[in-house]
Amino acid sequence: MHYGTIKKYDIADGEGVRVTLFVSGCTNCCEGCFQKETWDFFYGQEYTSETEQEILEALNSEFIQGLTLLGGEPFEPQNQKELVKLLRKVKETYPEKDIWSYTGFVYDKDLKEGQRKHTEVTDEMLSYLDVLVDGPFIQDLKDITLKFRGSRNQRVIDMKKTLETGEVILYLE
Are 19 and 3 in contact, with CB atoms under 8 Å apart? Predict the structure, then answer.
């Protein structure tokens, strides 16, 4: 897996001050994407154990609320295999920190068992998330007044409640 950047003090991609990992690789290729360079699976730097350690160290501050995964596309199958290890380690090391992820895929159409982007680690990966912002960015539905998303079709999902109830429960309307 490759990544474009790590932001250690991000206030735009989730609540509070966050550490944000921008992974590389995306097959959605949304028109109007703000990170087109991350569509390339080999963009940026190779993700290594040193990268993981850098992220874990960046999270080790009282004022950091949590981790956010962006892209590119965290839920591309080849990215899931590496990211699930990171999420597991974050939850073990910092159980009080929250984890957000963005995806251009739709949770209940692409990521559930038997669907096109579901892998052997998808369920575990989703279990570590507190919030999932799902859906492709759609230029015609762009709305800069929305919190934590760019177009009106995207949802901010409370993953803990969604997994508990089996129904999509929104974190924000």
Answer: no
